[in-house]
Design goal:
The protein has 13 helices and 24 strands. The chain is an alpha+beta fold. It folds into two domains: 2-185 and 343-397, FAD/NAD(P)-binding domain (3-Layer(bba) Sandwich), CATH 3.50.50; 189-340, no CATH class. The protein has a five-stranded parallel beta sheet, covered by helices on one side.
Length: 401
């Protein structure tokens, strides 16, 4: 059996390894269009490779996927995050699970994952061809012809693991075959705020605010990082993933509301502040921070609310307290543009899941053509979920049933 893998990234290598383990006598080659394999693995997680997430509840795990959650929930029954961790550790890559459930190699170096894949490819006699871009795919009976710049080759089975494409044109060859394509748009990105002074607080992390986008139902909470261009951190990245299409339609021009204390009932916040007044009436606003807010943020919010830092808590009237409640629970900022999260590029969109039999990852349009990884309309929030989708779909595609 002659098998081709299109794409030398995470999903390509993982599917190739499983194909060879399931069909040891097959001839298999990975075609990579660039001069490097596993380049996204190299830079992911800040060069440490957040290869999965340690979440133990599979339903909670599945909810981390704005697109593909229903299909993956079933697919995880074949290969889930526990299987991933076991797979790497069995091949000499010890792992660590952080407090936030992100899973990294113990070496804290993505090279450990790359070395593991290259060792497996060598052990299984997997051929790798670089600078081998595919310019055409043509079904010929039950086989598939791949066209290169110099010649063509025929294969019995082909797995497409080309990763996400930032533009629809990059998926035209699959669309021309009859696959439905969901328009690609960026997913994980941070918010640019060129007109907002909060950027002067860059480096501050607020542990658990909630953020919503005005005019939509989009909300998220979690750590928020203030940067020199705007806002980032898990809370923002979650919003960018779940709102990928909506924010694209808004041309990345919108307003966000930040609830710095993550308490929805403003009456509760007002009660809390009245309690602060009773206990700390002689203390300066400057010197007593409610909700353990970061000091620089607290000073910024006082100034933003027009409240003098020289006032004592006891000098605050009802009007000033209401103003403070509003700034703590409904602080509005204008977003104008986005920035890719680190060097990681994740797309929402790709080959529609309606074009794929998720039990086998085989195309419904072209027999013996399979898919793995982000080329499909599947994407997750930050935290190792996108790699897990790659491992799971590649494992299933590698069965070639």
């Amino acid at each position: 059996m002659q098998i081709a893998i299109i794409g030398g990234g995470a999903a390509g290598f993982f599917s190739a390894i499983h194909v060879k383990e399931n069909f040891p006598d097959a001839f298999l080659v990975i075609y990579e269009k660039s001069d490097k394999t596993l380049s996204k693995v190299k830079v992911s997680g800040g060069g440490r490779c957040n290869l999965t997430n340690g979440c133990t509840d599979i339903n909670d795990f599945s909810e981390a996927y704005p697109r593909g959650a229903r299909q993956l929930r079933k697919a995880f029954g074949h290969f889930d995050n526990k299987d991933t961790m076991r797979w790497f550790e069995d091949r000499g890559v010890p792992l660590v699970i952080q407090d936030d459930n992100c899973v990294f190699p113990a070496s804290q170096n993505s090279q450990s994952i790359i070395d593991c894949f290259m060792n497996e490819a060598k052990r299984l006699n997997i051929k790798i061809e670089l600078n081998a871009g595919i310019i055409g795919v043509e079904p010929i009976g039950n086989q598939i012809e791949l066209e290169f710049e110099k010649g063509s080759k025929v294969f019995d089975k082909v797995i497409v693991a080309t990763g996400g494409s930032p533009k629809r044109a990059g998926l035209a060859w699959l669309e021309n075959m009859g696959h439905e394509i969901e328009e690609p748009v960026p997913s994980l990105f941070t918010f640019n705020m060129p007109s907002e002074n909060i950027k002067t607080l860059m480096g501050i992390v607020v542990e658990n605010p909630s953020i919503s986008i005005q005019g939509t139902k989009l909300k998220s909470d979690g750590p928020l990082l203030i940067t020199h261009w705007g806002m980032s951190g898990p809370a923002v990245l979650k919003l960018s993933a779940y709102g990928a299409r909506i924010l694209s339609d808004l041309n990345y021009e919108f307003k966000i509301q930040v609830n710095w204390v993550n308490i929805r009932q403003t009456e509760s916040v007002l009660d809390d502040l009245y309690a602060v007044v009773l206990r700390n009436s002689n203390k300066l606003l400057l010197n007593f921070r409610p909700y353990s807010l970061p000091e620089r943020l607290w000073h910024y919010l006082l100034e933003r609310g027009g409240l003098s830092k020289e006032l004592t808590w006891g000098q605050l009237g009802k009007k000033s307290l209401n103003k403070l409640v509003n700034i703590l629970t409904n602080d509005v900022y204008t977003v104008s543009g986005k920035t890719t999260f680190k060097e990681e590029f994740v797309t929402c969109g790709g080959v529609s899941l309606s074009s794929i039999d998720f039990k086998t990852m085989q195309s419904k349009v072209c027999p013996n053509l399979y898919f793995a990884g982000e080329v499909m309309d599947i994407d997750g929030i930050t935290g190792g979920y996108n790699f897990q989708a790659a491992w799971t779909t590649a494992f299933i595609a590698g069965k070639l049933l």
